[in-house]
Specification:
The complex is a heterodimer of chains A (509) and B (367).
Chain A (H helix, E strand, L loop, with lengths): L1 H13 L9 H17 L4 H15 L10 H16 L15 E6 L6 H14 L4 E6 L6 H12 L2 E3 L7 H12 L6 E6 L7 H16 L4 E8 L6 H12 L3 E5 L8 H10 L3 E5 L7 E3 L2 H8 L5 H11 L2 H13 L4 H12 L4 H6 L14 H12 L3 H5 L6 H11 L3 H25 L15 H22 L16 H4 L19
Parallel strand pairs in A: 1-4, 1-5, 2-3, 2-4, 5-6, 6-7
Antiparallel strand pairs in A: 7-8
Chain B lengths: L1 H4 L2 H14 L20 H5 L16 H5 L2 H6 L4 H13 L4 H13 L4 H18 L4 H17 L14 E7 L5 H14 L4 E6 L6 H12 L2 E4 L6 H14 L4 E6 L7 H18 L4 E7 L5 H13 L3 E5 L9 H9 L3 E5 L7 E3 L2 H9 L2
Parallel strand pairs in B: 1-4, 1-5, 2-3, 2-4, 5-6, 6-7
Antiparallel strand pairs in B: 7-8
Helix pairs in contact in B: 6-7, 7-8, 8-9, 9-16, 10-11, 12-13, 13-14, 14-15
The chains are: A alpha/beta (509), B alpha/beta (367).
Chain lengths: 509, 367
């Protein structure tokens, strides 16, 4: 499904290749595909219309910025538009004002309010606040018991006097008694309710009014599941209109839903998305990053998190050396081994791969951390000379390695073959990135501003090659660096401020 | 965007390494199940449509519509407007491209999804052309029939066994979909029909999950089997079978913890629970996937992944008392051949209906 879209998109983007000014017809074709990408990401159809219109205004007749070709310009514009639509920069929860600060959590059934309540409490406690959780879901069986257990897990107090009845007096009691009980923050968990249930919406409103009664800080936070579809817009609007929303928390973001609901909610209510709930443990609460969400909605994966983790896993110097080795054609299996070890430090393989464009959700390949270990074992059983140049690996050597690493000769054959493929992909991409004029010799090429762009482009093309090669059926063994454009997901043709390759350090491998 | 591409070279290398490490280069995509390529041609499926759906000239005169309780038809009340106005526009605009696009938008707004929508509308358009259909009612009828046909294949009834121990129903789904509530409603129905029901609380992860199911057991007169929090869910499922056999129960329903389908280890765990259950019970009669009616296209990924792990035999779509249409079930049926069997319409014990394609689609298209 997504691959078909990528191809459509790359087709449209191809139409923009090499043109200067962006012509309406070409822009329309691209916008059409972006519209589809957003719809497939569950962004509400009316919201999509608005965004596409704004994009059209930005793009038609515009001159791409110097150094950017039109495709890159378009993709940048789309990303910028989405980021802005999602709120621009990260917004923090502001609880300044008279104590106690009262937070009401509202949302549909099953959104994750109770789990989020615990996470929020723990988060605020870690910032030095003294929160109490209040059980105002007196509707769902065992909801109060669940909150008790959640509170215990978060190490915070809980106020849960009843398991049925009217939640409004419970809220009032908690707010008025908070300060005396030593709490400066009150977090009220409410029952899930439909946005079309007027009575229950009024009840939620009543609870919010109670929160404001004490004249101090009160915030209503709307919790919504990242996987909600088209109706996210209508749901958010109803809650905003009747109950009032000060902020949004997106839940189950550790799933693989593209999360278009986030965009719909933000567009329709203007309320900032403050947090992302990303797991079932009480620590799994993160600040919401509009740029990462924009990338995810477009199907571009969560490359920023990927990069963060990758950077944590190894230092920049090692990375640059490795990149240079690739460009020089001297990237050997020992370099690969280093990289594999770095990859191991990034966390479970399936999670890491899922962050790459086109690799999430249904497209996620069945990767196995054990595979990584076996690959490592194979390389370790090789001599330095073999690692440097796998071409010397004859049958006898391979058998020896298989025995030494506890693997099989076919596995070794596969590794070597794939390694060669990978090298070729990278080299071709790098060559393409340098204007198609021979890729070897990585010492910076043109020493002008263009040289930097060329290097960046090389890096991106390499990435596109690698990622495009993973992109899906039919891509196996292909050289995507040569095939222009895997669309948004493949990053094809994108330029970016990257790191120019540094001259290789002394000390040969 | 700047931030996105810092360390691009790093990404390039890591990506290549990951490809290698994961054994991906040259490998076929693991999820062999393609999305959207398994649709059956319109005419074939149409023949499976229930015979009880006469094509009457005036939809309002159909006996089914009148006999329908407030249930699905009554509550599927909102975004239909988009569809009906699109239908009107179709004729007003002389069935031109823009009008057909509006029709597509109506379906997309119902979470049917771009792919399924495009396919269905393309079929309807062709049929309209071939049949010379140019009036709103005619096009509506074609669309209705197309959608009904999509949703009509497969069994509708929950499977049961005849002797050989209790019937076993295994309930799965992501967090918050409505599994436990649905089980409560099923228990209520079955007990009311005179059956002895055992509920196994194999959600040993979520706080107070067993308590929640326990309340439903109490309300409905079903027997509860539970373990300690953190216990092995497979062992609770196993114990459920033991209990059901010991008390000569007719039906065992096993609740499981909600899990996101991209969590490999959790899906593996589910597979294991299923295997243990099947082995002890001599098979599982129905494996239900509970889909939240508000879910967007991720519902398809859910269905794919859960089907991979435990072979889903039916879908229960919940929370259709809101304004969501649950259109994703169309794609789930089209692409995976998994029928919808149950519709959840609220948190009350009675709020459960058997899925009927005609009712569902009529609710979708009605004024």
């Amino acid at each position: 499904m997504f691959d078909a879209l990528q191809q459509r998109l790359s087709g449209a983007l191809d139409g923009l290749r090499g043109r200067g000014r962006l012509e309406p017809a070409a822009v329309d074709a691209t916008l059409s595909d972006i519209r589809l990408a957003l719809l497939e990401a569950d962004v509400n159809i009316a919201v999509v219309r608005g965004i596409v219109e704004r994009l059209r205004e930005r793009l038609v007749g515009a001159d791409p910025a110097p150094g950017l070709d039109p495709r890159q310009h378009v993709i940048r514009a789309v990303d910028a538009e989405l980021r802005a639509a999602l709120g621009g920069d990260h917004v923090a929860l502001d609880l300044a004002g008279r104590a106690p600060a009262v937070i009401v959590l509202a949302g549909l059934q099953g959104a994750g309010k109770t789990t989020v309540a615990g996470k929020l409490a723990r988060h605020l406690a870690s910032k030095g606040r003294r929160p109490v959780l209040v059980a105002c879901d007196l509707q769902r069986p065992a909801a109060v018991e669940q909150l008790r257990i959640v509170a215990a897990g978060a190490g915070v107090a809980v106020h849960a006097p009843f398991t049925e009845g009217d939640p409004v007096p419970v809220a009032r009691e908690a707010v008025t008694g908070a300060t005396l009980a030593g709490h400066d923050t009150v977090i009220i968990d409410t029952a899930g309710r439909l946005h079309v249930d007027d009575e229950l919406l009024r009840q939620a409103r009543a609870i919010v009014d109670v929160a404001h009664e004490h004249g101090g800080t009160a915030r209503t936070l709307f919790v919504i599941d990242a996987m909600v579809g088209q109706e996210a817009a209508a749901v958010a609007r109803s809650f905003a209109d009747v109950v009032g929303l000060d902020g949004v928390i997106l839940s189950k973001l550790d799933g693989d839903a593209r999360g278009g609901a986030a965009l719909s909610v933000r567009e329709v209510t203007g309320a900032p998305i403050l947090f992302a709930s990303v797991g079932e443990r009480v620590e799994d609460l993160e600040a919401f990053h509009p740029d990462r969400m924009a990338s995810r909605i477009l199907g571009m994966g969560d490359v920023l998190t990927f990069i963060e983790r990758a950077e944590q896993a190894q230092d920049a110097e090692a990375a640059r050396d490795a990149e240079q080795a690739l460009l020089d054609g001297t990237f050997g299996l020992d370099d690969l081994l280093e990289q594999l070890q770095a990859v191991k430090r990034m966390g479970p393989l399936s999670g890491v791969i899922g962050m790459l464009p086109g690799m999430g959700g249904a497209a996620a390949p069945d990767v196995d951390d054990r595979q990584l270990v076996r690959t490592e074992a194979i390389i370790r059983s090789m001599t330095p000379a073999e690692r440097r140049d796998p071409r010397v690996l004859n049958g006898r050597r391979r058998r020896r390695i298989a025995a030494g690493s506890g693997t099989t000769v076919p596995e070794i054959n596969r590794l070597v073959k794939q390694f060669e493929q990978m090298q070729q992909l990278m080299r071709q991409a790098a060559a393409a990135g340098r204007g198609g004029r021979g890729g070897k010799g990585g010492k910076g090429g043109k020493k002008s501003g263009k040289g930097r762009k060329g290097a960046q482009r090389a890096a991106m093309q390499a990435q596109a090659a690698a990622l495009g090669g993973l992109g899906g059926p039919g891509a196996a063994g292909a050289v995507p660096g040569a095939a222009p454009g895997r669309g948004l997901g493949g990053f094809a043709g994108l330029s970016a401020p990257g790191q120019p390759p540094r001259p290789r350090g002394t000390g040969d491998r | 965007m700047e931030g996105l591409f810092e360390g691009a070279s790093l990404v390039a290398i890591m990506a290549g390494v990951l490809a290698l490490a994961g054994g991906l280069l040259g490998a076929r995509r693991a999820r062999g199940r393609s999305t959207g390529q398994t649709s059956t041609p319109m005419h074939e499926v149409a023949s499976d449509a229930p015979a009880a759906a006469p094509v009457a000239p005036d939809p309002e005169a159909e006996p089914e519509a009148e006999a329908e309780p407030a249930g699905v038809t009554g509550r599927l009340a909102r975004t239909r407007n988009l569809l009906t106005s699109a239908l009107a526009e179709l004729v007003g605009a002389g069935l031109d491209d823009a009008a057909w696009e509006r029709l597509e938008e109506g379906l997309i707004a119902a979470d049917v999804g771009v792919q399924a929508t495009t396919a269905v509308v393309a079929d309807v358009r062709r049929l309209a052309r071939e049949g010379g259909v140019r009036d709103v009612d005619g096009v509506r009828r074609l669309l209705r029939d197309a959608l009904v046909a999509e949703l009509s294949s497969g069994e509708r009834a929950l499977r049961r066994r005849d002797g050989d121990g209790p019937t076993v129903w295994f309930v799965t789904g992501v967090n918050g979909a409505g599994k436990t509530t649905t089980i409560g409603k099923l228990a209520s129905r079955e007990v009311a029909a005179g059956r002895h029901v055992v509920l196994a609380a194999a959600d040993t992860f979520r706080a107070a999950a067993a308590e929640q199911l326990g309340i439903w057991a109490e309300r409905t007169g079903a027997e509860l089997v539970r373990g300690e929090e953190g216990a092995d869910p497979a062992s609770v499922a196993y114990a459920g079978v033991d209990a059901a056999l010991a008390s000569g129960a007719d039906l065992l329903i096993v609740d499981t913890a909600g899990r996101l389908q991209n969590r490999r280890e959790l899906m593996d765990e589910l597979g294991k629970v299923g295997r243990v259950l099947a082995k002890r019970a001599g098979g599982i009669d129905e494996t239900l996937l509970v889909l939240d009616g508000t879910v967007g296209q991720n519902g398809i990924a859910q269905a794919e992944a859960f089907h991979d792990a435990v072979e889903i035999s039916g879908v229960a779509i919940t929370k259709l008392d809101g304004s969501s249409r649950g259109g994703v079930v169309v794609a789930v049926q089209r692409q995976l051949g998994i029928p919808v069997k149950l519709v959840g319409l609220g948190e009350g014990i009675e709020d459960l209906e058997d899925f009927d394609p005609v009712t569902y689609v009529d609710g979708l298209l009605e004024d």
